[in-house]
Design goal:
The two termini are 32 Å apart. With 859 residues, the chain is α/β, with parallel strands linked by helices. A hairpin with a 5-residue loop joins strand 4 (56-57) and strand 5. Among the domains are: 93-177 and 423-528 and 563-602, 3-Layer(aba) Sandwich (Rossmann fold); 686-855, Barwin-like endoglucanases. 26% of the residues lie in helices and 17% in strands. It is globular. It binds ligand MGD (2 copies) and molybdenum atom.
Length: 859
C-alpha cells in the first residue's frame, strides 16, 4: 500500500485528455483521503523569472499576463466528489441473466441487475469469450469502442488499452472517431481554404497579439469562452475576454442563447435562430457586394470562383437574392441589424472568435456555414492587421506547430513514447465511423463516402468510398468498450439502445470507473480507477500560461476493487499469456522512459523532476518575433499556396465539383441548405408544424459531456438541475417567456421534449437568454430510461438526435439544432403509470445509483 497520508501531489485534471494534460491542480491528501483540490503555484519550487513570464500590451496600454498559479475551474475543484461518487463500480460485475454457457438475454440489457464476481472469474470470462469469438468469427467480430475524452492519463490511459491487447490477438474492428468537435470545418471548410488537418485557420501564430494591437472587434460566432475552456484548459480564455474589454476591443456574440461568456463580456448580443447562420452569412455578403464594401481585386488575387459565389448570393443561380430582408425571417435577425453589422464589419478590423465551433458546426449541413464563414473572412481580407479566425481554446492544440494564437512555450513535453491510449490515426483494416455504429450492428452492410472519418485526415481522404464489413470480415458479435457513453454523446441514442440489445451482440464488456450510460448495458463490467488513484506521468499543454510536465504521484488508495484501465486489460492479457508483450514494462520504468523522451531532460534531471513533482517549461525566447499568422499570405498569396487543389481560396470547390458534381446538400459553391434528402431539421420544413422548436444542445457547463453528472456539488447549482415535485433533479430546459406564455409553462415545470424518435424529460427555466423558437438543454446528461429506446428521465437529449449524418456524403454527427416539441408532464402521475421502470437506477436526491442495480450477496 503506497504512502497516502499528509502530502500534496500534482495532477493535470482536465477532462478532455487523450494523453494531453490540462487544468493542473494541487491535491492535498490527509489520512489517505483527498482533502482539497486547489491551484498549484508555478513558483512554489522554481524561480518565477526562469519561466520568462510573457506580456501582451494592447494599443491603449491594457496588459495581459499569465498568473503565477494554475487556473483550475469549478470542475477541478469539485473533482473529489467524482472520485468518491457512490456511482463508482465497486468490484467486477456480471449481469444476472447473462450466462455465457446458457441463455444470454440480450433483450434485458439496460434493465437487468448485476451480481458481484471476482477479478479472477471476470477475466476468465472475458478471455474465454475472446477466444471463442476469434475462433468462430475471426477478429473483426470484436468492435473496440476505445476512443473518447476523459481523464488524461498516459501509462494508465483512459481509452485505448484494449486495442493493444486485441492487436496482439490478431486485430479488431475499430469504432473510428469522428472529427466531432469540428465536423463542419472538416467536411466544409477544408474544401474552401484547405487548412489541414483541422479545417480551421492554421497559422494562427501571434494572432492574439495582432488583435490586441490592431483589432477593433471580435465576433464570437458561436462560442462560449467562459464555459467550454473548463473542459479544455482552465480559466484563461475568460481572462482573455476581460482583457479585450479593457483593451477597448468590442465583442459581438452571435448565438441563439446569451451564453455564460456573452452574459459577462458581450458588448452586443445578436440572437440568431439555431443553424440558420448560413442565411445570415449570405445576407452579409449581399450587403458587401451591393454596397461595394470589399476589395474585389484583392479577393480575386487570393481566390478562384468568386463569380460563382456572387451569382448565388445575388440570385442569379436560383432567382432568390440573399438580401437582409430574405434572411430576416429565416434567422430571426432583423434586416436593419444585418445591414448595420455588415457595414460595421467592413469598416473595422474584425476577427471571428470560436472555441471549437459551436452548435452549428455539429448540426445538419454544417459544411455550409463553415465554408461561408471563410467566404466572409476572405471578402474582408483575411490576414490583414487585426483580422483572422481565432480559437480561444487552441493553446498548443495537439502540438500542431502553427495553431498557436497565444505566446508560445519553448517546448511541448512529448508523452507519446509511453502513452498507452488510443491513437486517432490507428489504421486497422476494418472500421466503422462512430456515427454509423447502430446501423452497422443491426443492419450490416453499411456503405459511406468520406473515407476514414477520423479527425485529422487530409481532405482527399474524404473522397474514398468505404464499406463495413470489408471483404472477408463478418458482422459484429462482441463489444469491448472503455468509453461507455455512446447513447448520451452521439447521434440517435435511442437507436443505439436498441442496437445494444440486439441478438447479434453475444457479449459486451465495459471497463469504467462509474456505473452509468452504456455500462449499464454491459454483460461484464470491470471497475477502473480515476487518476487520483495511480502513479503516472503527464503534461499540461492547454493553460495558455505555461506548459508543464508532471510526475503524478498516487494520491489515494484505489476505490473498492478497481484497477487502472491499463491494469484491468493487463489482467485479461495474463489469462491469454500475452502480458509481457502487452505491458512493455513496469509503471516505474515507463515513467522514467516517458521523462527521458519528453524533451525535458535538457532542463533538469529525472531525479530532480521526481522530487519536485513538476517542471514549468519557459516561454520561448523572442516569441514576439514568430511569424504573424496569415500575414505573409495576405501580402502575397503566391508565396504560400493553400492546401486546396488550386492553392487558392476556392469559392467554387474544384474538388467537390469533380467528385460530387450533383450533391445539392454540399454543392461546389457554399449554400444555405435548410433541409434536403438527409434532414428536415428546419423551421422552414413542414415537419415544424408538429415540432415547432429547434433544440440547442450546448456542451454542458457543469459537466464535460457524460463526465461528472453525478457530482453532488454541481447538482446544487440552479443552472445545473431543476428540482421536480417528486424531488428528482431534472436537466434544465431554457424557454423564452414569449413561448412559455403561449404554452402556459412556468419556471420549474417538468416537461418532456419530444419528436418521432422519443422523449426526454427536463425542468423549465424561464429566460430571455434564449431566442424565441429555440429551446436549450445541455448535452451529456446521464441516461435514466423510463422506457428503453423511447423515454428518458435523465435529460439525455442525444437519445432523440437525428441518426442521419451531416449530409449524404459527409458522415459527421448531427447532434445540435433539431426539431422538437415541448409539453408539460405531471411526474407524480407518470410515476404511477410506469411504477417499476420509473427511476430504476438513480436516487432522486443525490443522483447516485442507489445500488438498486447490484444484487447484494446473501440476498
Ligand atoms: N447533443 C450533443 N452531442 C454532442 C456534442 C454536442 O455539442 N451536442 N458534442 C460532441 C463532441 S464535440 C464530442 S467531443 C463528443 C464527446 O463524446 P465522448 O468523448 O464520447 O464523451 P466523454 O463523456 O467526454 O467521454 C467518454 C467516456 O469516457 C469516460 N471516462 C472518463 N475517464 C475515464 C477513464 O479514466 N477510464 C475509462 N474507462 N473511462 C473514462 C467517461 O465517463 C465517458 O463515459 O460528444 C459529441 N456529442
Ligand atoms: N464545460 C465543458 N467544457 C468543454 C466540454 C464540455 O462538455 N463541457 N467539451 C469540450 C469539447 S470536446 C469541445 S469540442 C468544446 C466545444 O466547444 P464549442 O463547440 O464552442 O461549444 P458548444 O457548447 O457546442 O457551443 C458554443 C456556443 O455556441 C452557441 N451556439 C449553439 N448553437 C448555435 C447555432 O446554431 N448558431 C450559433 N451562431 N451559435 C450557436 C451557443 O451559445 C454555445 O454556448 O468544448 C470543450 N470544453
Ligand atoms: Mo469535442
Amino acid at each position: 500500500m503506497p504512502e497516502t497520508s499528509g502530502k500534496t501531489v500534482y495532477k493535470s485534471l482536465g477532462l478532455c485528455g487523450f494523453g494531453l494534460g490540462s487544468n493542473s491542480a494541487a491535491v492535498d491528501v490527509k489520512d489517505g483521503k483527498i482533502l482539497r483540490i486547489r491551484p498549484m503555484h508555478y513558483d512554489e519550487k522554481y524561480d518565477y523569472e526562469s519561466m520568462r513570464p510573457w506580456k501582451i500590451t494592447a494599443r491603449n496600454g491594457a496588459v495581459l499576463e499569465p498568473k503565477t498559479h494554475t487556473l483550475p475551474t469549478p470542475l477541478q475543484y469539485a473533482y473529489k466528489k467524482r472520485v468518491y461518487s457512490k456511482n463508482r463500480v465497486p468490484y467486477p460485475l456480471k449481469r444476472v441473466d447473462w450466462d455465457p454457457n446458457g441463455e444470454r438475454h440480450p433483450e434485458t440489457r439496460g434493465e437487468a441487475k448485476y451480481v458481484r464476481i471476482s477479478w479472477d472469474e471476470a477475466t476468465d470470462i472475458v478471455a474465454s469469450e475472446l477466444k471463442r469469438i476469434y475462433a468462430e468469427y475471426g477478429p473483426f467480430a470484436v468492435l473496440a469502442q476505445i476512443d473518447g475524452h476523459g481523464e488524461s492519463k498516459i501509462i494508465h490511459a483512459a481509452h485505448g488499452c484494449p486495442g493493444k491487447l486485441l492487436d496482439l490477438l490478431g486485430g479488431y474492428t475499430l469504432q473510428a472517431r469522428q472529427p466531432d468537435s469540428w465536423e463542419g470545418w472538416t467536411w466544409g471548410a477544408k474544401h474552401i481554404w484547405g487548412m489541414d488537418p483541422v479545417g480551421k485557420q492554421a497559422h494562427t501564430e501571434n494572432l492574439f497579439k495582432d488583435i490586441a494591437e490592431n483589432g477593433d472587434c471580435v465576433i464570437m460566432w458561436s462560442g462560449d469562452p467562459e464555459t467550454t475552456p473548463w473542459g479544455w484548459g482552465g480559466m484563461m480564455p475568460g481572462r482573455v475576454e476581460s482583457f479585450l474589454t479593457e483593451a477597448g476591443i468590442k465583442q459581438i456574440f452571435i448565438t441563439p442563447d446569451l451564453n455564460y461568456a456573452a452574459a459577462a463580456h458581450a458588448d452586443k448580443w445578436i440572437p440568431v435562430l439555431p443553424n440558420t447562420d448560413a442565411a445570415l452569412q449570405c445576407a452579409i455578403a449581399y450587403v458587401w457586394m451591393k454596397e461595394g464594401l470589399y476589395d474585389r481585386e484583392w479577393v480575386e488575387s487570393h481566390s478562384v470562383g468568386f463569380d460563382w459565389f456572387e451569382r448565388y448570393i445575388l440570385g442569379g443561380e436560383d432567382g432568390v437574392a440573399k438580401t437582409p430582408a430574405w434572411a430576416a425571417p429565416i434567422t430571426g435577425v432583423s434586416a436593419r441589424q444585418i445591414k448595420a453589422l455588415a457595414r460595421y464589419w467592413a469598416k473595422h478590423a474584425v476577427s471571428i472568435g470560436h472555441c471549437a465551433g459551436g452548435g452549428l458546426i455539429r448540426a445538419a449541413y454544417s459544411s455550409e456555414p463553415a465554408r461561408l464563414e471563410v467566404c466572409l473572412l476572405t471578402m474582408q481580407q483575411l490576414g490583414k492587421p487585426g483580422a483572422g479566425q481565432i480559437n480561444f481554446m487552441d493553446v498548443g492544440l495537439f502540438g500542431i506547430d502553427d495553431i498557436y494564437p497565444f505566446p508560445r512555450c519553448e517546448l511541448q513535453p512529448d508523452m507519446n513514447s509511453v502513452y498507452h491510449g488510443w491513437a486517432m490515426l490507428t489504421e486497422p483494416v476494418n472500421f466503422i465511423p462512430k456515427t454509423l455504429i447502430p446501423q452497422a450492428i443491426m443492419n450490416p452492410p453499411v456503405h459511406w463516402s468520406g473515407g476514414h472519418v477520423i479527425a485529422g485526415m487530409p481532405a482527399q481522404d474524404q473522397f474514398i468510398e468505404w464499406d463495413f464489413p470489408q471483404p472477408g470480415a463478418g458482422e459484429i458479435h462482441m463489444i469491448w468498450t472503455d468509453s461507455p457513453c455512446w447513447q448520451t454523446c452521439w447521434n440517435g441514442g435511442n437507436e443505439m439502445q436498441r442496437a445494444l440489445r440486439h441478438p447479434n451482440l453475444q457479449f459486451i464488456v465495459a471497463q469504467h470507473p462509474w456505473l452509468e450510460n452504456d455500462a449499464l448495458f454491459a454483460d461484464i463490467i470491470l471497475p477502473t480507477t480515476t487518476k487520483l488513484e495511480v502513479n503516472d506521468i503527464s503534461s499540461d499543454l492547454f493553460s495558455g500560461q505555461y506548459n508543464m510536465i508532471l510526475h503524478e504521484e498516487q494520491a489515494v488508495p484505489h476505490v473498492g476493487e478497481s484497477l487502472s484501465d491499463w491494469e484491468a486489460v493487463g489482467e485479461v492479457a495474463k489469462k491469454l499469456g500475452l502480458y509481457e508483450q502487452y505491458a512493455e514494462g513496469t509503471e516505474e520504468e515507463l515513467i522514467k522512459k516517458g521523462f527521458e523522451n519528453s524533451g525535458c531532460e535538457k532542463y533538469l534531471t529525472y531525479e530532480e523532476w521526481m522530487e519536485k513533482g513538476y517542471f514549468v517549461v519557459p516561454t520561448a525566447e523572442n516569441w514576439e518575433n514568430d511569424r504573424l499568422h496569415m500575414r505573409p499570405w495576405y501580402e502575397d498569396p503566391d508565396s504560400e499556396p493553400l492546401s486546396t487543389p488550386t492553392g487558392k481560396i476556392e469559392f467554387y470547390s474544384t474538388a467537390l465539383a469533380e467528385h460530387y458534381p450533383d450533391d445539392v446538400e454540399r454543392p461546389p459553391v457554399p449554400h444555405f441548405v435548410p433541409y434536403g434528402e438527409s434532414h428536415s431539421e428546419s423551421l422552414l420544413h413542414p415537419r415544424a408544424k408538429e415540432y415547432p422548436f429547434l433544440l440547442i444542445t450546448n456542451h454542458p457547463r457543469w459537466r464535460v459531456h457524460a463526465n461528472n453528472d453525478d457530482n453532488t456539488w454541481m447538482r446544487e447549482f440552479e443552472t445545473c438541475k431543476v428540482k421536480g415535485p417528486d424531488g428528482y433533479l431534472y436537466e434544465p430546459i431554457w424557454v423564452n417567456p414569449l413561448d412559455a406564455g403561449r404554452l402556459n409553462l412556468h419556471d420549474g415545470d417538468i416537461c418532456k421534449i419530444f419528436n418521432e424518435r422519443g422523449a426526454v424529460l427536463g425542468g423549465v427555466r424561464l429566460s430571455e437568454r434564449v431566442i424565441p423558437g429555440a429551446l436549450y438543454q445541455d448535452h451529456g446528461a446521464r441516461v435514466d430510461s423510463i422506457v428503453i429506446g423511447e423515454f428518458d428521465r435523465g435529460g439525455a437529449n442525444n437519445l432523440i438526435c437525428p441518426s442521419n449524418t451531416t449530409s449524404k456524403n459527409c458522415p459527421g454527427e448531427v447532434t445540435n439544432s433539431f426539431l422538437i416539441n415541448i409539453a408539460k408532464v405531471d411526474v407524480l402521475e407518470l410515476a404511477k403509470q410506469y411504477p417499476v421502470e420509473f427511476a430504476k437506477f438513480y436516487d432522486k436526491d443525490t443522483g447516485h445509483v442507489a445500488e438498486s442495480c447490484i444484487i447484494k450477496e446473501g440476498r
